[in-house]
Amino acid sequence: MSYTQDEDATLALSSVSGILLNVLIPLQSNAIDPVDIDSPEDSEFEKSLCAVWDLSSIHDYARIFINEAQVHRMVLKAISITQRVRTEELAMGILANVACFEDTAIVIVNDEDVTTVLGRIITGSADGRVLVESLRLLRNLLTNCSNKYRIIVADISSYSIINQILFFIYNTMNTELLSSAIGTMKLLISTQPELFNNKQEELNNLFRWICDRLDSLEFTKETSSTIISFVIELVDTDAIEHTKDDVSKIFKYYEKVRHEFLDDEEITNMVKGKDKTFRARKQVPEKTHQHRLQRYAEVTLGSGNLKLAVQLPEGEDLREWLAVHTYDFYNQINMLYGIITEYCTPQRCPVMSAGARVEYRWQDNKHYKKPTTVSAPHYVDLLMNWIQGQLEDNDVFPSQLGAPFPKNFSSIVKTIFRRLFRVYAHIYCHHLEAIQQLNAEPHLNTSFKHFMYFVYEFKLMDKSEMQPLAEKITNVLGDEYVLT
Ligand SMILES: [Zn+2]
């Protein structure tokens, strides 16, 4: 067995040895730049780097490049001797590519020169393309080397990286760099909050700056989705001072982005949580059956007929259809509740209730063995964490196409829906005014309507459990939906 593996490795290394020699030989004689230093065409050396760039996006090649050929040392040397920004861009791009994979990311982050050069370029380069690749490298290192992040941060913070990234955001005319800088800031805030301990004012200014531009700036779709997930996260974590007006503005912007890019898979996924916007959600892998179903559901929704949209498409698997919608409603409710968290506090809502007569008590048979009264925000937190745990459990919600669902799948789904309903009930009974002030009522109603049609279509709840919102159900769904 090991023989075969060795042979494969040798084969692969030899298959790229020509390309690597084309990089190595000019490097050894310090002759990588062309005679015409300002030539807009790629030099011979740069063409070789392009080939390495392409291959380095494939995991097997990234391993060979880093573990066997030490390509990171080659590109570091190239950066140190070149006078061309194109060469720098390609070199940083190669590092960013290999940093996409955990094992190769760890090798290069352990090389101090990589983080030193990264810090130097981010604070010193004036070229947009070089900076975009450098920030991409930084994000990939932060994502893939979480246990090493202190090293990265120690290296980069000596260059006051945060101020530099803020500088890009405020000053660049390059939308790609703007988007990249905001995405990097978002990742830094969520992965290393301690960096921002005495940066409250900077964060507030940044939030203000973005909010003030939501109406006026025409962002590209990539930037829009980065921005929306960023501001929602800021609001969600209470990291910044914000007004009702801000939330309302963000909400409108979210709706606009959602509406404009509904047909764009990438954006929809990012806004809906593929980028871990609201809470970490298991990704529905692209090209799988579930992903296709999710698209199908979105397109049908676009038609505006919610009652039709919930029906199981012909020939599709019921459990996959249920799974896709469970993800979706979880995210919707998470977002709806997220916008009223400042109103739903332990002081104002000391119990989880739906009107004066209905109280929900939490029980999970782990930490809460008996039904226990907890405050509404605590209850919602427990509830959402529990659902997230189910969604992330591969034995309950398999991510692979064809993997079996558990026997009790439908009863788990029913429990999830019953619990999600309680969040709608609490919002409607206790926070409708806040929702109205935020101009979010139409969205709440649409979301609830969709949810209830789905519940009816697949008989996911008992009528008795719907009682707290009996009137609302008839109002929103129509007269034929009367609970008796
Ligand atoms: Zn509340």
TrEMBL record:
Q: Does the keyword Metal-binding apply?
A: yes
Q: What keywords are assigned to this protein?
A: Metal-binding, Zinc
Q: Where does Zn(2+) bind?
A: C344, C349, H426, H431
Gene3D superfamilies, sorted: Leucine-rich Repeat Variant, MOB kinase activator
Carries keyword Zinc? yes
Q: Name one Pfam family in it.
A: Mob1_phocein
Its protein name is 2600_t:CDS:1
